[in-house]
Design goal:
The complex is a heterodimer of chains A (about 210) and B (about 475).
Chain A lengths: L1 H17 L3 H26 L2 H29 L11 H22 L5 H23 L3 H22 L5 H29 L13
Chain B lengths: L1 H18 L3 H29 L1 E4 L4 E4 H30 L5 H23 L3 H19 L5 H33 L9 H4 L8 H19 L7 H8 L2 H29 L2 H24 L4 H22 L2 H32 L10 H4 L1 H14 L6 H16 L2 H26 L14 H36 L2
Antiparallel strand pairs in B: 1-2
Helix pairs in contact in B: 1-2, 1-4, 2-3, 2-4, 3-4, 3-10, 3-13, 3-18, 4-5, 4-10, 5-6, 5-10, 6-8, 6-9, 8-10, 9-10, 9-12, 10-11, 10-12, 10-13, 11-12, 11-17, 12-13, 12-16, 13-15, 13-16, 13-18, 15-17, 15-18, 16-17
Classes of the chains: A mainly alpha (about 210), B mainly alpha (about 475).
Amino acid sequence: MYGIILFTVLVSTYLMVIAKRMPALIRGFRYQSFCLFVFTWVIASGHRQPDLFVVAGLLFVLKVSLIPYLLYQIIKKIRVSEDLGLFINPQLSLVWALVFTYLSWVFSVSLLISHETVLTSMLAIAFFIVLAGLFLMITRMSALAQIIGLLVMENGLFLLASTVSGGMPFFVEIAIFFDVFVSVVIMGLFVHRINKLFTHIDVNKLSRLKG
Amino acid sequence: MEIFLILGMPLLLAISSLSIRKQRVFGIVNSIGHLAVLLAGINLFKSIITKGSAKAFLGFIYLDFLSVFFIFVTSIIAFAVSLYSIGYIRKDVAQGVISEKKAQVYYLFFNLFCFSMFVVPAVDNLGMLWVAVEMTTLISAFLVGFYNSKESVEAAWKYIIICSVGIIFALLGTILFSYAFSISGLSKSLNWSDIAPVAHILDKDILKVAFIFILVGYGTKAGLAPMHTWLPDAHSQAVAPISALLSGVLLKMAVYAILRFGMIIIKSVGFSYFAHLMILFGIISLAISSGFILVQKDLKRLLAYSSIEHIGIISIGFGLGSPLAIAGALLHIFNHAVTKSFMFFGAGNIVSVYKKHNMNTIRGVIRAMPFTGIMVLLGMFALTGFPPFSIFISEIMILTAAFTNGSYAIAALLLFFLSLIFGAFIYHFGKMLFGKLPKGMVVSAEPLSKRSAFLFLLFLICVLGIVLPFIKKDLLWFAQRLLQG
């Protein structure tokens, strides 16, 4: 069961890495978050922990519904090109992603003391998602893609926390969700401002400050 | 308990900033509020020194010497900034740079920012520590992008993105710490006060990896090179009083977080691992910042790079690790906070009169604004570590510690970069402060609120050298205790 869910998480991340346009990227993020939601739900019903159900519910409300909705709204409002502005084309990005997958596997094998396959692969996938998020942030020029990259990294950490340490303490988890949501709202505001002042959201062209 | 006043007052002021329309009135109310916070901070400092540590609010808040020290520094700078803000915001409103409503927004975010910075050292839970540090970024981003110009919005965007990514790594490190704690067979917890006593039984390899993530993550926020790239942009574009807060206190909050994890690492892995990393990042920060300081043209960026330099000195101090060095580093945190805020106030005054940042075109500051000119001259000597000012004392403590430890290479590098930076400062400020009064410029005086902010900080800068011999023993004792957790 865990295997299937983790596999879908992995696939959704690959989908994001090869996405060329903004809506595809957001859709990928939605799939990924949905998989994490199912994952948490399964754990919650397995252990019968009521607070994990709350975490799963929050995940669904915020990351599957509200944040993608907000991002779609921003795209609609600013009406700039939906291109992500790729520094590295999708094929090459996929190659990189595969390399990252291998590296995070090696890293998690060396980090863990017990060599359970499920735990190791969970850890590897979590690290991979973090790396993929970072990769998205670095190689995409659109400011919105950077927001999504950040969210992807955060998803990776969520997976990491729920696998290796059995989740963060409940109120910390809630606080982090709140924090992520607030940061998306604030970054969205700044994307608006950038678009207003510069008439584009290409962060590669933000280069007035130097030295 | 004083901690409730310290945390509650900024929130209360934030709410009341929305209801009091007149920024003139509110500025004064704000300063009185922050004066109360400062007094509470001093009281808290005293009571924790005698008690050792305290918990409050259902174990949510944990205070020991380290946390009250940071709260104390924050309350001092917050009070000085609230004083300076009165005159600064009033002038901006009078000149029509910002509207009355925008001034309200300024005070709102200023107080929220202060609140988030008081929360960082007060929380016990390492996860909440992360949330609080991220909160400081999100709130202060508005103050960096406050003027809504192209440059400031760009700076705010870079700030928010780079710091958020950096801090994600810190969360990764935090999760690994909690993993190390959970496999040790103890109950699940992220509370520092639970983890620290059992640090020696935790898995060393995981902690080592985790600490690298912590150092990179919080190091980004602290402005350690090479993760410092957001810092000069944000500090140079923020509203002048906020630059003082960013540089004086915010960077130290990240240092605080590193120290918290560092104390666990020292207990578990041993001191040398922590020391090597801190000294490495410290030296890199010094080297990079000294290069940029030499060739800098922008006044506020110069001060921002100088902050990177001082964070480097602080981390070298903690890395050296003898009680003298730790005491020096703690003192340096205080001294740098006070002196750098002082200099940012001066820079704010200069920029608001000359309307430009470029040091090559600013001339005759002492003629044009005598009070600010003299203050900046004094501040420049204080910042570069000239006796009798306080930074000289903390730097000499760290240097002495380096020599007595036998780390001659580190001491030599430190001295080399310090003298380089000293030369650069004399060169830049000498050109700017002296010289003829520019044509068409009238000699201007500063309002009382600004002057009192300067004098308050100058008092702190000067007085430390006199008081220090009396409290040195206590300080060394605290440093000793800090090392042992």
